[in-house]
Automatic annotation (TrEMBL):
Hydrolase keyword on record: yes
GO biological process per UniProt: carbohydrate metabolic process
Catalytic activity: Hydrolysis of terminal, non-reducing alpha-D-galactose residues in alpha-D-galactosides, including galactose oligosaccharides, galactomannans and galactolipids
Keywords: Disulfide bond, Glycosidase, Hydrolase, Signal
EC number in record: 3.2.1.22
Domain Alpha galactosidase C-terminal: 328-403
SUPFAM superfamilies recorded: (Trans)glycosidases (SSF51445), Glycosyl hydrolase domain (SSF51011)
Organism whose genome encodes this protein: Theobroma cacao
Single GO MF descriptor: alpha-galactosidase activity
UniProt signal peptide: 1-27
Functional note: May regulate leaf (and possibly other organ) development by functioning in cell wall loosening and cell wall expansion.
Domain of life: Eukaryota
This protein's name: Alpha-galactosidase
Length: 409
C-alpha cells in the first residue's frame, strides 16, 4: 500500500470511529426483533454500567483460597486507600464460594467453613461500606473449579437467590456445560435476572467463543472477548489485540471485557503494569482489580489510583479506543473523548527505547488547529498550542498516555 493510500485509510478510520457514536444511538433502537428490543431497553433502563464497571475480583490473586474475612478486609481496604472514592465499588467473589451441593430445596448456599455468616450478611457488610457485592456462577452443571454447582437448569431459582441476598454483579462462566450453544444458556440467565427484579450487572464469561460482542449487548452489560488473562507481558499484549477487534460493539451500558487486571500481582514490571492499565482504560474495559488490595504497594496504588487515567475509562462518551498504527512493535492507540478531546497512547512493545510520532490527522484532529497536550501519568501539560504532530521517546514495554484538547482560546 502506498503512503498516500495508507494515510487516507487511517484518516477514514478515525472519521468513521467518530461517526460511530451517533450510529450507536440509532442502533440501540434497531435490534433484530421486538423481544430483543424490549430486553435491551430493560438492561439500559436499570441504570447499570453506563460507564465500565470498576471494582475488585478475588480470582487472580486468591483463586479458591477465599473466605469472608478476605472479602470484608478487601472492602475495608478499598475505602481506606481511597480507591472506593475513585469508583472501585464492586467487591466480587469468584469461584469456590459455595458448598459442593445444593440444599434439599435446590438452593445454592455459602460454604459453611469459609462463609459462616452467609452471603446475605456479607452483602450487608459490603453495602454498609457504600460498596456493592458481586458473585460468580456458571452456565453449566458445575463451575470451572468443579467445587460447586453450576446454574444450568436452575437459572430462575439462582437469580431469585442472588437478588434476595442483595447481589449487585454476576460473573457467569461457561464450564461443564451440556454442549448446547452458549448464547441460549446465557439468554436464559439474562431473562431470569430480569424477572428477579434487582438491578444487577450481568457479565457474560463465555471467553469470546461465539463472538458475544455481536449479540450480548441485548442481554448483558459486559462480555468476555478473550480467554483468561495471566500475569505476563505476552498475555496482556495478545489479549489487547484480540479485544481490539470488537471495539465498535462497545458503548454505554455494554462493554467488551478483556478480563480482569493483573496490576500488583508481581509478574510484570512497573512500566508493564502501567501499560496494561493504560490500554485497559483506553479500551473502556471493566477495571476489576485482581491484586490483594489490603497489602498493595505504593507503586501499585499509584497505578490503579491514577484519577486522570480512570477518568478516561469512565468518560461519558463511552467510545472504545483502538489501535490505529503499528510497526516494529511501536504502536499508536487512540479514541475520542467527550468535549471534542482525544486520548492517545504511544505504546512501545519492542525491546528497545524508541521515538514514536503521532500526527493530528491520524487521530481525527485538524493539523493546523492548536492543541493542548496533557501527560496523564506525569500529571502535567507538555504542550499548550501544539500543531501537526507529537513525538516522544518511549522506553521498552512502556507507554506515554496523553489527552489532546483542541485549543479554544
Amino acid at each position: 500500500m502506498s503512503m498516500a493510500k495508507g494515510f487516507r485509510v487511517k484518516f477514514l478510520f478515525v472519521a468513521l470511529l467518530n461517526l460511530w457514536v451517533v450510529h450507536q444511538a440509532a442502533c440501540s433502537m434497531n435490534v433484530s426483533s421486538h423481544g430483543h428490543q424490549a430486553h435491551s431497553r430493560f438492561l439500559l433502563d436499570n441504570g447499570v454500567s453506563r460507564t465500565p464497571p470498576m471494582g475488585w475480583n478475588s480470582w487472580n490473586h486468591f483463586h479458591c483460597d477465599l473466605n469472608e474475612t478476605i472479602i470484608r478486609s478487601t472492602a475495608d481496604a478499598l475505602v481506606s486507600t481511597g480507591l472506593a472514592k475513585l469508583g472501585y465499588k464492586y467487591v466480587n467473589l469468584d469461584d469456590c464460594w459455595a458448598e459442593g451441593e445444593r440444599d434439599k430445596k435446590g438452593n445454592l448456599r455459602g460454604k459453611l467453613t469459609t462463609f459462616p455468616s452467609g452471603i446475605k450478611a456479607l452483602a450487608d457488610y459490603v453495602h454498609s461500606k457504600g460498596l456493592k457485592l458481586g458473585i460468580y456462577a456458571d452456565a453449566g452443571n458445575r463451575t470451572c473449579s468443579n467445587q460447586m454447582p453450576g446454574s444450568l437448569g436452575h437459572e430462575d431459582q439462582d437469580a431469585r437467590t442472588f437478588a434476595e441476598w442483595g447481589v449487585d454483579y454476576i460473573k457467569y462462566d461457561n464450564c461443564y456445560n451440556d454442549g448446547s450453544k452458549n448464547r441460549g444458556r446465557y439468554v436464559r440467565m439474562s431473562r431470569a435476572l430480569q424477572k428477579a427484579g434487582r438491578p444487577i450487572h450481568y457479565s457474560l464469561c463465555e471467553w469470546g467463543q461465539e463472538k458475544p460482542a455481536i449479540w450480548a449487548g441485548a442481554y448483558g452489560h459486559s462480555w468476555r472477548t478473550t480467554g483468561d488473562i495471566n500475569d505476563t507481558w505476552a498475555s496482556i499484549t495478545s489479549i489487547a489485540d484480540a479485544n481490539d477487534i470488537w471495539a465498535r460493539y462497545a458503548g454505554p451500558g455494554g462493554w467488551n471485557d478483556p478480563d480482569m487486571l493483573e496490576v500488583g500481582n508481581g509478574g510484570m514490571t512497573v512500566e508493564e503494569y502501567r501499560s496494561h492499565f493504560s490500554i485497559w482504560a483506553l479500551m473502556k474495559a471493566p477495571l476489576l482489580l485482581g491484586c490483594d488490595v489490603s497489602s498493595a504497594s505504593r507503586e501499585t496504588l499509584s497505578i490503579i489510583g491514577n484519577k486522570e487515567v480512570i477518568d478516561i475509562n469512565q468518560d461519558p462518551l463511552g467510545v472504545q479506543g483502538r489501535k490505529i498504527r503499528t510497526k516494529g512493535g511501536l504502536e499508536i492507540w487512540a479514541g475520542p473523548l467527550s468535549r471534542g478531546r482525544v486520548v492517545v497512547v504511544l505504546w512501545n512493545r519492542s525491546r528497545a527505547r524508541a521515538p514514536i510520532s503521532v500526527g493530528w490527522r491520524e487521530i481525527g484532529l485538524s493539523p493546523s488547529r492548536p492543541v493542548t497536550v496533557r501527560d496523564v501519568w506525569k500529571h502535567k501539560f507538555v504542550a499548550m498550542k501544539r500543531r501537526y504532530r507529537l513525538t516522544s521517546s518511549v522506553a521498552s514495554h512502556s507507554c506515554k498516555m496523553y489527552v489532546m484538547t483542541p485549543f479554544s482560546g
